[in-house]
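can u do me a favor
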């Protein structure tokens, strides 16, 4: 059984694993898997709270479509595009959090990066081919998740 609460060391290791796999993916395919920290963070979220991971994916999809709509009316490129996408994701994630906080108070205990990760995924979806981004993000996240879960199940990683 995998615990819902992980130690800070295990969380840092999960992010580090995601960074290593993201870097390998980027260097071999020239595709960013939704940002460098995204696969590690999503894998950690899958280990601790599947509902939160599903919500992050939903917010990323909504942010992608909102950005495409916004690009029809505003010239967005470079840093302006990045700022607009991440800000849109943070606003959507905050809205979802405020709407669901009373019904599910434990859903948002300490998910600071969870507000930014959907924006990072959406930013890459806007910049790169859609299918390539989805495949690379999923593959790197699953690789990180498998290594993290194996380490937890074998007792090689500390749990809280």
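np, heres the sequence
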């Amino acid at each position: 059984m995998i615990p819902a609460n992980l130690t800070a060391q295990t969380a840092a290791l999960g992010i580090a694993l995601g960074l290593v796999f993201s870097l390998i993916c980027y260097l071999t395919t020239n595709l960013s898997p939704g940002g460098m920290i995204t696969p590690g963070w999503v894998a950690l979220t899958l280990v601790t709270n599947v509902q939160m991971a599903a919500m992050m994916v939903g917010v990323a999809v909504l942010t992608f479509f909102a950005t495409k709509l916004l690009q029809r009316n505003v010239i967005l490129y470079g840093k302006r595009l990045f700022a607009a996408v991440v800000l849109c994701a943070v606003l959507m994630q905050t809205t979802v959090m405020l709407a669901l906080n009373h019904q599910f108070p434990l859903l948002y205990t300490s998910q600071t990066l969870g507000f930014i990760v959907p924006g990072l995924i959406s930013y890459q979806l806007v910049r790169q081919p859609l299918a390539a981004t989805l495949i690379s993000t999923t593959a790197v996240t699953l690789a990180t998740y498998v290594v993290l879960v194996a380490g937890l199940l074998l007792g090689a990683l500390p749990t809280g």
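The longest helix spans residues 130-153. hope that helps!!
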